[in-house]
Amino acid sequence: MAKIDPDGLVRLDLNNPVFQENLLTLQKVERHAAIETLTKLRQMTWNQVYRDSGLKWEKIISIKPPNGIDAIYSLRITQTRRATAYREGEFIRLLTIASDHDSTYGKK
Fold first, then answer.
1. Residue 105's Cα: distance from chain center in Å?
2. Could you give all domains of the chain from N- to C-terminal order, each with its CATH number?
3. What is the pLDDT of residues 43-93, one digit of tens each?
4. What DSSP letter does each residue of 34-76 carry, written as one string?
5. Which of 18, 37, 58, 69 counts the highest number of beta carbons within 10 A?
């Protein structure tokens, strides 16, 4: 297995159909804010992602990740919404954009 460089740039995987649907159905202002966050992510290293206070990268402990995935994380994608994702090597694989903060963590 290749060593992962923590100072390597983050690569985005936006291919999840649920994430795409969530992103494309956002209102224009929120959609643009999400795109700005994705642009920011592409320019960051993983160490920067972990430390960035604006993204608030957090492990979600209330949701059991699927087989083969170590953990699911949330990050702030707009001022009012969080996305779920997981890390696979140098990729951040985006899964969803929650309609509200609590639903990111599997709460009602």
1. 13
2. 11-97 (3.30.2310.20)
3. 999 999 999 999 999 999 998 898 999 999 999 999 999 999 999 999 999
4. HHHHHHHHHT-BHHHHHH-TTT--EE-SSSPPPTT-S--EEEE
5. 37
- Residue 20's nearest CA partner among 95, 78, 85, 81 is 95
What pTM did the predictor assign? 0.86
Q: For residue 79, what are its two tokens?
A: 């001022």
Handedness of CA 13, 55, 105, 108 (dihedral sign): negative
Using CA atoms, how far residue 85 sits from 28, 66, 106, in Å, is: 22, 12, 14
